[in-house]
Amino acid sequence: MFQNFNSTTSPKQGPPRLKRLRNWMSSKNIDGFIVPRADCHQGENVAACDERLSWLTGFTGSAGFACILKEHAGIFIDGRYRLQILDQVANEYSPIHWPEVQLHDWISETASVGDVIGFDPWLHTVLQINTLNEALKGKGISLKSCDNGIDAIWEDRPGKPSASAWSHPIALSGQSVKEKCSKISTIIANNGADSAVITLPDSLCWLLNIRGADVRRTPIVQAFVIITAQGSVKLFSDIRKFKNVHFDEWIELFDWSDFECALQGSTGVMQIDPESLPYAAFKALEVGSSKINYAPDPCILPKARKNHTELEGARLAHTRDGAAMVEFLSWFSQNDPSQLTEIDIVETLEGFRIATGQLHDISFDTISGSGPNGAIVHYRVTHETNRCLEQNSLLLIDSGGQYKDGTTDITRTLAVGTPSLEMCQCFTQVLQGMIAVSRVRFPKGLSGRDLDALARTRLWEVGQDYDHGTGHGVGSFLSVHEGPQRISRTAAVQLDPGMIISVEPGYYRAQAFGIRIENLIVVQEPEQLMHSGSHSMLDFETLTYAPIDRQLILRDMMTDYETAWLNTYHSNVFEKLTPHLTPEASKWLRTATMAI
Amino acid sequence: MFQNFNSTTSPKQGPPRLKRLRNWMSSKNIDGFIVPRADCHQGENVAACDERLSWLTGFTGSAGFACILKEHAGIFIDGRYRLQILDQVANEYSPIHWPEVQLHDWISETASVGDVIGFDPWLHTVLQINTLNEALKGKGISLKSCDNGIDAIWEDRPGKPSASAWSHPIALSGQSVKEKCSKISTIIANNGADSAVITLPDSLCWLLNIRGADVRRTPIVQAFVIITAQGSVKLFSDIRKFKNVHFDEWIELFDWSDFECALQGSTGVMQIDPESLPYAAFKALEVGSSKINYAPDPCILPKARKNHTELEGARLAHTRDGAAMVEFLSWFSQNDPSQLTEIDIVETLEGFRIATGQLHDISFDTISGSGPNGAIVHYRVTHETNRCLEQNSLLLIDSGGQYKDGTTDITRTLAVGTPSLEMCQCFTQVLQGMIAVSRVRFPKGLSGRDLDALARTRLWEVGQDYDHGTGHGVGSFLSVHEGPQRISRTAAVQLDPGMIISVEPGYYRAQAFGIRIENLIVVQEPEQLMHSGSHSMLDFETLTYAPIDRQLILRDMMTDYETAWLNTYHSNVFEKLTPHLTPEASKWLRTATMAI
Questions:
Q1: Distance in Å, alpha carbon of A509 to nearest chain B alpha carbon
Q2: How many Å apart are CA A38 and CA A50, to the nearest integer?
Q3: In whole angstroms, what is the distance from residue B194 CA to residue A241 CA?
Q4: Residue B526: its chain A contacts at CB < 8 A?
Q5: Maximum distance among all Cα pairs of chain A, rounded to whole angstroms
Q6: Inter-chain CB pairs, A–B, below 8 Å
Q7: How high does pLDDT run on average in chain A?
Q8: What does the pLDDT read at residue B378?
């Protein structure tokens, strides 16, 4: 079982640690210290040794940061975590609504003139520090790069991860390391640079066809890379991690400790991504004679556009994962829900995924939210919050698997007992939004921003909305949240064939219920047009196959187009999954996918 | 009759004038000269004396520019004019596809190292010249501000317009000059400036509640304004134009000739809009001691958000204009179309508008495109192009009126005889797009970009699209094309209550037919939500009332929501207009607005 249900932190741990951090600050003659959630790779999942924010404060969310001053301790969290934080941190920490309140605003108002705020330069990007420096200009408050105060006081801090990496075979990646490095070196050369630094683990894992176990849920290897415009690669990490990986001779392995030196000694034009490069790496480059060229990480777009092999893998992974979902749903239909808890749901579903024999990990901790817990967008059940499923409520299950051929992410909302009319109305509106995006055809050149409204118009009609994006990019046996493609009001990157993206509109009524329906889709060139169109178009192939709860759909609210999409989808689900099912699940699926 | 059907230019006029311009260039020791369509107010409609581009080349489009070199003459036109230009200019002029090819690229490739390109600094904005200078850096080609070469060789060039201006009464503007100037001076002060220069005529006409007759179709007065953060105003123009206008004493009138001096003598912080300020004005400011503060014209947003009085006026104007449209449509239904030409359509429709007794001008030259002419998005019929209406074709009519209480803009596409199934399919898809935008409710904060896709999804489904925005802003007895609100893929400005905007999806099949359906709509706070929504929403009120040709609608393609919208709209059209109609038109309208 991958998931556990323990509360890993307690609000009580915060105050004594805060006191010790302030003592350390005083010993270093600084008046403040910033503690981000991020590690030096800016990953969403971090290793145990990088859980500094939760160790200090008790807050376990996947995004946020604290700023500790002598008298104040602000903890900055976005809309997803405003309820959760109240249970997780002691009163000594003041939750700050971020990004509405920016760090520099809070510092300007809270710190004193003359104060020096320390930060660990490996944990902040160039852009973050430059922006903060710029905003604090003229306020009489300065930033100071320093050692990490948490590392200084955290006695039993775990070591850096050292799990073995392995090769991700070409049968799954579809492209050799040679080809990828050649493509990236061309991008670097076209950009007028001689080399590029890559610090995002999923970028370098994609580039070097490696995977690893440095963090949970995402099979990445933590490392840094310098790649030249000629295609040669220096890889900086813990060398022991690569004993099972054979690299060609043009890929040289170095220890972590050599990275700073390599930057200091670099020459020529060095391409860096200010949105991911640690500030410390930038300062090391400044010591050397190289000229800086700012550009996005060159792996990001090629990685986002999945090739034929990766898409074939994704289809297999989704069929397998869909079959596990159906076994679970069939099991669920045969049980008395009042005898089940949220944790039972998580364990049983994971059990069916494990039974496929091919589950490498779950792709994130399953969200199993019953009744009011469904309205907490990033709910993770613990023994303390675990609820029995109530009659006449909704159950929201958002889960996914890491398979070597693909990463899945699926949300289904299920009726428990007899749902109310309002629940069915809201569910149908959310479904209409998901269908609108799934079936849209659109001209080349559009970004996710241009499509976001399609998922929301039915909710908007009745004054409702959801406070998250419509969809995020998904990696290929990599991060379940992968940029740059997204569907949201701020998604500016053009949608290109091969990009995998989620479509997951929702509706949340606080203290009552939550609804979300999520499929993964992939941008494709349409096979053929119904009429001879004059414009060059794209559309989406749906990757996720699992039934949508028909008990929650109000047929009369649906248009004929929507109903036709749903019936075709369900008929494809049946056809695709039934060869992989137990007879019992297959029988259940036949009913669950009947036309409405 | 406002509209005429003469071709005002001929390709033959171009070559001799080009020769004389080159002689002038040679006498001035310059190697090139740029001739924009724009006047010094950057207006879409220009006075006769500013028709330099058409005088020189024969090209009469509303956007474009020429760059004349010793050996080459490039004329830069966008997608709308690529066919038209072929008929209008002689071979000496090379049409350049702009913006695909930028002026600086063409100059770099075509001019010689050492060449000096002249330009009239009053006809180009600060942004245009700065961008061009930046792009030509290092190419060995320089720009030089100089006199206008066209004015030097155009012997019978008309004088600057001198028509009388008049006051736009508070009963129509809804806000006194005092209140408006006070609002604008606050914006300037909040921006840290002491004064602002305003050179856009519709901005200053809005600010000073004046209208005039300096150009056709748009009732603007050409002038420049300097307004201080204390709210005092200096108005630079032809003083004689204001003999019928009473200004308060804090509005001082000066002659055109004083403007440059006033800028040269200005002090303090001066706010300018680099997207509209003439480069010459910027150079004059540089002579003085004032500090420049770049910001958008402060009138643009307050002007775009129409007040209650302006909206009441718009509703009256649209009812009047809708009734004229219905009289026309009723007349059309009783005539044998094969006996009618495109010009007959224009003249008859204008006649019905004039018969309202309140038409000040048409708001633009009516587009009356029969059959293949309908596919030319900016078609304007002349005696040469005039077509008889053919049986079994489509007629596209895009027209509008300037009434003192409001500006209208409406497009209807009519069946002539029996339209083909394909025509009806395309018409229905376009209609579905118009309905989708008209009935959408959306959260505050969205821009037109976020809604653009809604108008297009039905066309996209069959690989079709239209190569223009979905909608443009409209003024209040001012420009029929008014920014900054728009619905298009590049429309970034937030939609606010009171903004009037067109919604006009279309479909064009070259050499065959054109379809466009256009209503004006206004952003409003919804009167009430059907359910208790949790989000703060906006929606649109439709201003335009005129029937949509039911013969072209395929009922089976429409969803119930769309049909319900159409039937409600048609029933409102009947109810609203019938009190203003002749009995004959009223009878026709009853049939034309029957539920489908």
A1: 9
A2: 8
A3: 65
A4: 463
A5: 74
A6: 101
A7: 95
A8: 84
3-state SS assignment for residue B360? coil
CB neighbours (10 Å) of residue A101? Answer: 13
B15 prior amide bond cis, ω within 30: no
Yes or no, beta carbons of A463 and B561 under 8 Å apart: no
User: What is the tens place of the pLDDT at every residue in B341-386?
Assistant: 999 999 999 999 999 999 999 999 999 999 999 998 888 999 989 9
Half-sphere CA count of B84, side-chain side, radius 13 A: 27
Q: Which of A172, A170, A196 is nearest to A183 (CA)?
A: A196
Nearest to A462 among B442, B531, B559 (CB): B531
What are the chain B neighbours of A440 within 8 Å (beta carbons)? 453, 457, 460-461
ipTM of the complex: 0.88
How many angstroms separate the CA of residue B580 from the nearest CA in chain A?
Answer: 33
Position B314 scores a pLDDT of 98
pTM exceeding 0.80: yes
Q: DSSP E strands: which ranges in A180-223?
A: 195-198, 210-211
Summarised one tens digit per residue, pLDDT across range A199-251 is 999 999 999 999 999 999 999 999 999 999 999 999 999 999 999 999 999 99
Residues of chain B with pLDDT under 50: 530-531
- Taking an 8 Å cut-off on Cβ atoms, the answer to whether A529 and B441 are in contact is no
Which candidate in B454, B457, B513, B554 is best for mutational testing of the A interface (most A CBs within 10 A)?
B457
**How many C-beta atoms surround the C-beta of residue A335 within 10 A?**
12
Q: What length does chain B have?
A: 596
**What residues in B contact A451, CB-CB < 8 Å?**
453
Residues 6+ apart with CB under 8 A from A335: none
Using DSSP bridges, classify how beta strands A291-294 and A393-399 pair: parallel, antiparallel or unpaired: unpaired
Q: Which residue has the tokens 């494809």?
A: A572
Q: Do A451 and B446 touch (CB under 8 A)?
A: no
Residue contact A535–B464, C-beta within 8 A: yes
Q: Say what the pLDDT of residue A536 is.
A: 86
Q: Who contacts A37 (Cβ-Cβ below 8 Å, separation ≥6)?
A: A46, A53, A61, A62, A63, A64, A65
Phi and psi dihedrals of B524, rounded to 5? Answer: -145, 160
User: Is residue A442 within 8 angstroms of chain B, CB to CB?
Assistant: yes
Tokens (6 digits) for A123: 């944990």
Residue B69 CB neighbours (<10 A): 19
Pick among A426, A438, A441 to test the B interface (most B CBs inside 10 A): A441
